[in-house]
């Protein structure tokens, strides 16, 4: 597993490279992503370990996957991700592991989530046309999309439009674990 400092530096390098490749200023990326210019400066200088939500907003604004932003090296034609190399985001008793991702021809990410009893994660709206599908491996998920809650049990699956705010919550008494795929349409051209 890569050490946190290596991942922080990879994020710094990749965000800066993706931003400059698109000819965006820090102010323009801040406006597109909803992430403050100050936070972007900290991210690009490797002075902070950004949250999943912050990385998701930056990745969406750049038209790449979160996986692309946390990559330590270039992606070969066939990419096998060893479990020791999976990037893990911890926020209290919520753990999200980005197992693998791709950004061509469309943006795809495979996630493994764990939420302790009583915990939740609020997902920001993704770009229009983004879909998420998931299956529950343990516990019970309460998924709220556009103000309506749905209970998904073990071995159940769900597909939903993720271009609006959504919440994953564990209102049960045991750990919740689910695997999720995020599919985001690729932008036709940089704006």
Structural class: alpha+beta
| Distance between the ends | 36 Å
Biggest sheet strand order reads: 1-2-3-10-5-8
Q: Which spans of ≥5 residues are poorly predicted at pLDDT below 50? A: none
What is the average per-residue confidence, as pLDDT, rounded to a whole number?
86
- Strand content range: 25-35%
- Portion of residues in helices? 25-40%
Described by strand count, sense and barrel closure, the largest sheet is: 6 strands, antiparallel
Helix segment tally: 5
H/E element sequence: HHHHHEEEEEEEEEE
* Oligomer class: single chain
Radius of gyration: 16 Å
In total, the number of strands is: 10
- The shape, in one word, is globular
Features:
about 190 residues; alpha+beta; 6-stranded antiparallel sheet; 4-stranded antiparallel sheet; 5 helices
Please give a structural write-up.
Helices cover 26% and strands 33% of the residues. The chain is an alpha+beta fold. The strands form two sheets. A six-stranded antiparallel sheet has the order 1-2-3-10-5-8. A four-stranded antiparallel sheet has the order 4-9-6-7, with no helix packed on it. Strand 2 and strand 3 form a beta hairpin. It is globular, with a radius of gyration of 16 Å. 30% of the residues are buried. The mean pLDDT is 86.
């Amino acid at each position: 597993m890569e050490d946190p400092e290596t991942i922080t530096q990879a994020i710094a390098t990749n965000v800066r490279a993706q931003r400059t490749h698109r000819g965006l200023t820090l102010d323009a990326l801040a406006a597109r992503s909803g992430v403050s210019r100050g936070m972007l400066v900290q991210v690009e200088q490797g002075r902070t370990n950004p949250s999943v939500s912050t990385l998701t907003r930056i990745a969406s604004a750049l038209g790449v996957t979160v996986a692309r932003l946390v990559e330590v090296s270039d992606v070969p034609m066939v990419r096998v991700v060893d479990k020791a190399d999976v990037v893990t985001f911890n926020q209290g008793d919520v753990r999200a592991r980005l197992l693998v991702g791709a950004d061509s021809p469309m943006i795809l990410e495979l996630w493994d989530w764990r939420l302790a009893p009583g915990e939740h994660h609020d997902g920001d709206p993704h770009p229009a046309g983004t879909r998420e599908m998931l299956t529950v491996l343990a516990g019970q998920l309460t998924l709220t999309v556009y103000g309506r809650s749905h209970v998904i049990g073990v071995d159940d699956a769900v597909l939903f439009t993720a271009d609006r705010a959504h919440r994953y919550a564990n209102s049960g008494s045991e750990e919740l674990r689910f695997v999720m795929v995020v599919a985001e349409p690729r932008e036709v051209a940089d704006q």
